[in-house]
Amino acid sequence: MSNALAIAGVTAVLQYYLNNLYAGVASNFPSAVTVSCLAPDQVQNSIVGGAGTADSENQVNLFLHQVSHNAAWRNVDLASMSSDGTRRVGNPPLALNLHYLLTAYGSDYWQAEALLGYALMMLHEAPTLTRQDISEAITVLTTLPYPYPTNKLSGFLNTAGLSDQIEMIKVTPESLSREEMAWLWTALKADYRPTFPFQVSVVLMQPQLGSSFALPVLKTVFGPSTQPTDGPAPLQPPQILTVETPNGQTGALPGDTVTVTGEFLTGATQVSMTNALLGTPLTAAAGDVQGNSLTFKVPSGPPGAFPAGAYQLEVQFMDSTNTIALQATNTLPFGIAPYLPATQTLVSTASGTGTLVTLGGLSPYAWPGQTIVLALSTTSAPLMNTSAQAQPIIGTVPVASLNFLFDEILPTSVQMLARLVVDGVTSVVTANLSVFPPTFTGPWVKL
Prior knowledge:
Blueprint: H1 6-24, E1 33-36, H2 40-47, E2 58-69, E3 94-105, H3 111-125, E4 128-129, H4 131-143, E5 169-173, H5 178-188, E6 195-205, E7 239-244, E8 257-263, E9 270-274, E10 282-285, E11 293-297, E12 309-318, E13 325-328, E14 332-336, E15 343-345, E16 347-351, E17 354-359, E18 372-377, E19 385-389, E20 402-406, E21 416-422, E22 425-426, E23 430-432, E24 439-442, E25 444-446
Parallel strand pairs: 1-2, 15-25
Antiparallel strand pairs: 2-3, 3-6, 4-5, 5-6, 7-8, 8-11, 9-10, 9-12, 12-13, 12-14, 16-17, 17-20, 18-19, 18-21, 21-22, 21-25, 23-24
Helix pairs in contact: 1-4
């Protein structure tokens, strides 16, 4: 978690990267671009020479105008004090959202707009401040006399712990209506300039204070109806922790053997997989059942029997007739991947300025209501990476063929790596990892 300097640290990091940004494009402006972090009225007083005088330089100002609680993190921990207020029982984080105004001041036509445009592109391209970004900026600010050698806080920013907090810091645009913007600038008592409001979330500040802990639980006492004192130990609830596909990718192919790891799985008999399009869950017999793992084979029925895509998987403990689930674990997401052959020639036709591609032989079939995307990429020059969503499926029956309308003319007789993404689950891609750099080995398609 961060400490009380975290808010200052966020502003300093943003100011540092804005400084670097404008240093790289300084030749586009008649004078050096200044990046400040002041109230707009202070900025206006510093760059306006007198009544009616135009702005004397190019400047971008970063102003923190509001701090609010982060709703998602606000109640994640216990209260900090006991009910009688005599002892500290926890150190819940203070989770904050920071609301900024980014304002551009220009000395000539179009310069304020250009300054604002560069900043918006930077925030758009890097919407998350990674740990490395924060550490790099803080290191420069605390060890080098650049760019703020007179700021005494610079030497303490490395103690903020900003790069070590649990959740990363994200930058998102914020929408302010014309009325809100007018009220805000009226309160600031400054002339309005081109401004972009955005939010930084989440800053987690936590006091480093000692707290008292309850003694550890040595034994759980059950009531007579649940656990007799002279009976066997209570059953531990089984749970699953991971689902490991044989290819290590987002989904397993029909017929693949999948490994499920967890706890207290001894006695498990089957695996159930539920998909929103299926009325009845898919089931597979559990094999090689251990206390902390088991395996199962993905069903490999007819291609129209079940769809590819996202499933919810749980392990079940069935009765002797295998009809009633006596106990079940928690659920985890699991993907059944669509299959593409190693090599395939697709039918393509020109359609206006684009290309209509037909992909046949789908396995499993495509079901109505699914979101399906075909991605094609070349691995040698000229490089190309494009994708298109499948045309809607007419009717209510799963189909073995789909049409994809690409918005560009695709090359013919060129080998392209193909990936089919069905409801977020991508078809299996193979590669040769024994060479460096690794090379893809399929699936390939040609038009």
